[in-house]
Amino acid sequence: MDPRPPETLGRYRLLSEAPVPGSSKTYRAEDPFLGREVLLKALEAGSAPAERAARFRQEMRLAARLSHPGLFRVLDAGEDGDWLWFAMERLEGRTLRAEMDERKRLPLARALGVLVGILLPLDYLHASQVVHRDVKPENVLLVPCRLEPEGRPVLLDLGIAKDRSDAGRTITRHGERALGSEYYAAPEALADAARATFASDVYSTGVLLYEMLAGRLPVGSNFPALDDCVPDAPCWIQMLFETMHASDERARFAKAGDVLAALREQVSPEAWHATARSGSSPHDPPRSAREWEAARAPGSGRGKTPFWLAWLPGRGRAP
Length: 319
Prior knowledge:
By secondary structure, the chain is α+β, with helices and mostly antiparallel strands. The chain has nine helices and eleven strands.
């Protein structure tokens, strides 16, 4: 069990532990100077294993360097005696795991909206040469907003992220098994955590997409196809999942931006409004990300155009 921090760290007064998932404890804290509450993540480096303290320092540096609406915003950081800490904006919401436990299966439009909301910060991380390595429902906070009262996704916990721009040093040892959650880890990361790539994050997000729609994990050899689980699934949804979930990372989308680009091609407002669903795809399912361009089966769906279409590249940007 981690020791509890002192009552104050830096200028922040700790109030209570916050139910925020992550590799280190997070606390509600008060900033008396600005009169606001923040979230404060803390670790006693003196009593923690050296590797864990190194990961926390890396998380501090990464979080301070990165800035995206789909990530927590860092406000301050410092050291207080043996304690390392950093303060973040306080966001209210519940995890995607909580929503999935409540609803079992998410409606198609909601699941695709959450998918896009996760891919956007992942795309930013990948462009910043960062592999998240722990994409899972527990690490997605759903924050209510004007466009999405059910909550827009905010990606949590960079505690085991891999900074590829810091080529001169690494914390993960070759041969070390996956540091994230086994059910969401890509095969190459399960074998060797140091081998995790942007495509490994894509695999994890594909598992998450399947679980949102099917209400179960895609484990074993005979899990059902998504179009058997989701009555109103467009023809391309199974192809998208298979290309995200390919065991061979060379057959997978290489990075989150490639998945967003594929979605942009498939989910147009016109396609979403279409009422006739094609009985089968005129193309064979793509065997690799490279073949995705040849597998543009016509999408379909019902209801109004989802707001998140404007989030896709070339259509606008997230609020």
